[in-house]
Model the fold of this input.
Amino acid sequence: MMKNMIKKRISILLAGCMALLLGGCMYPGEQLQQSQIPYEDNVKDVEEAVDAFRQDNGNLLPIVTKEEDTDYYIKYIIDFKKIVPRYLAEIPGNAYEEGGVYQYTIVNEEDDPTVKLIDLRMAETIRSVKLQIDAQGYPALAEEIGPGVYKLDYKKMGFDEEPVVRSPYSGKDLHLVMSGKGEIYVDYTPDLYDLLAETEQDPPDNTDIRSYLVEDAMFVPAYSLPYAWDKKEKKPVYMSNQE
Done:
C-alpha cells in the first residue's frame, strides 16, 4: 500500500512538472503573438497617459528627440520612460521597447496630440535592401516613376524575388522605391488610390495626401515620401523632386 501511495505521489509530481514545462514552452509563442497584434485599447491607454503628462508638464510631449528633417510620421516617437509607471502602469507588450513590432508615435502634435502606430517590420525589409545595396556597392535603378523617385531592379541586385512590405491599411503588398538621395521608402500609392479615387474625394492642390490615410486608422504611413493628388489623372503622385 505504501508503494502505491509513493507511486501516486510521484505521478502527481511528474504531472505537475510536465504542466509547468508545457506552460513554459507555450508562453514564448503566446507572447510572440501578443507582440504582433495592434490593440486599440493599448493605443487609447497610451494616449491618455500622453494627455496626463502634457497637463503636468506645460503641454510638453513625452517624445524622443529627433533631427529636425526627420519625416513627420516617424518624428514624434513616444519615450515610454517619461510616462511609465507614473502615467501608464506598463509599456504595452506589442511595443518595440518590449520586443513587439510596433513603435508608438504622435500626430497632430500641436492641436490634438493623437497616438498612432508604426509597423517596424517594414523597417526590417528596408534594412535588408540597404544591406544588399551596400554589399553590391551601388543600386540598380529600373525606371523613374516620379520626380527623383525610382523603381529598383532587384534581379540585378541579387534578389530572387522583389522584397515587399505588407500594408497596415489594406493588407496588400507594397513595393519599395528609392529617392534621388539614395534612401529607400515604401510606396503607398495603392492605398492612397483606393482611399481617394474609390471614395471620390478631391484633396486640395499642393497638399500632402498621406494625412488621409491616418484619419481613421491606427497606423501612420511610415517610411514614405510626400504625395499629392493629380486632379486630372485622378491618382496619387509624388509631391516634389526628391533629388
Summary: The first helix runs from residue 2 to 34. The beta strands are 102-107, 114-119, 141-146, 149-152, 165-166, 173-174, 176-179, 184-186, 227-230, 235-238. The CA atoms of residues 2 and 190 lie 74 Å apart.
